[in-house]
Write a structure and sequence with these properties.
Distance between the termini: 58 Å
Shape: globular
Structural class: alpha+beta
Strand content: 25-35%
Number of strands: 6
Number of domains: 1
Largest sheet: 4 strands, antiparallel
CATH architecture: 2-Layer Sandwich
CATH class: Alpha Beta
CATH superfamily: RRM (RNA recognition motif) domain
Strand order of the largest sheet: 2-3-1-6
CATH topology: Alpha-Beta Plaits
Length: 100
């Protein structure tokens, strides 16, 4: 079963190839996605890495949580599902007025 990991406090200079190679030391990496700003294209300082097995994911967490990369200590843990903030629903119709 593929396990998705969150990698935080990532150096802005980190490249996808180097991150895949690093996590490959813990097990087979299925995918690696450094999150970038949609306007500037610069890294936002975090990534998601999918490991092929749960054992690989556990090994990666143990090995790379607090691992120093380019002067920054990585934060690695199991990714949690994105929570819906509900903003869209709460703001719907907030600018309309009853003109009756």
């Amino acid at each position: 079963m593929i396990k998705k990991l969150f990698v935080g406090n990532l150096p802005y200079s980190a490249k996808q190839d180097s991150l895949e190679e690093l996590f490959g030391q813990a097990g087979k990496v299925e995918s690696c996605n450094i999150i970038t700003d949609k306007f500037s294209g610069q890294s936002r300082g975090f990534a998601f890495v999918e490991m092929e097995t749960e054992d690989g994911a556990k090994a990666a967490i143990e090995k790379f949580n607090n691992y120093e990369m380019d002067g920054r200590k990585l934060v690695v843990n199991e990714s949690r599902p994105k929570e819906d903030s509900g903003r869209r629903d709460n703001n719907r119709g907030s600018f309309s007025r009853d003109r009756g």
